[in-house]
Amino acid sequence: MEKKILVTRLYPRAGIRLLEKENFHLTLWKNERPMTSMELIESAIQHHALLCTLTDRIDQHFLTQCRHLEIISQFAVGYDNIDVAAATSLGIPVGFTPDAMSEATADIAFGLMIAVARKMFFLHKTIINGQWGHFKPTGNLGCELKNKTLGIFGLGRIGVKMALRCKHAYDMNIIYHNRNRNRAAEKLLDAVHVDYEDLLAQSDVLSVHCALTAETRERFNRSAFKRMKPSAIFINTARGPVHHEKDLTLAIQTGDIWGAGLDVTNPEPMQPDNPLLFMENVCVLPHVGSGTKEARDQMSVMAAMNIIEFYRNGRVPHMVNPEVLKS
Fold it and tell me: Which letter does DSSP use for residue 241 in this model?
């Protein structure tokens, strides 16, 4: 029987071509906007497999209605939009695309760190607004990064690449906090594992690279920011809800921390009148961490191969819930 695959967005052709070569019947959602929950359910009911992304809500209601699905493949490294426990209980394997975007996202984190340190976004706006005036010896001063301490919250694939950039470019000292120690990264980076309190207290730059879980949701809140250095820069390229946005705004306004660089916001999209957008020590991007041709092509290929390999030989190369196939 020809397998029918629902493809929920206009993903790069690199992966779609692979699916086409396997003679799957593809239904491509061609609108720029995501499907509504109802549209997603009504379409998925008619298909055997789903290729989705973070904007698709794969919750318990969806999975109950679409329990017939044979595989879900996620075009992303994160999967907090998917109720993995519910999918697992229904025996549905969930694939994802780890490491495809690690270099691209680390570049964004590194770039945001420099941009915040030198107030780049704010100073660019002064030119647009006709405010490039006379030289001011004490005006618009930023801070240097050489020999500072980088704290990583979540030293995994992306965190390691961010730390390598910082160590090689600025000879930064690396500290990190994980649930489990990353011995290989410690050796590679001469990194030191610290508890959460020391991470907050010692970091000159604190960069978030963790998954969004119940434990990490709004972990960086008013209490956390008050325990950081007043000269600290907070960087989040992971998930917006890891920080409490109003608390972050207040922390910068009151001088609890110096500034912030965000590729993710809480909520998304950020409203254009958000006060963070008008602060000179803040740089915000619209969740473009994976936004390179190389990364998006690789994500598309990996998401497609998860489906192809599942139907070829019953395995999923990159799988969130491997216990489904083991059972």
Answer: G
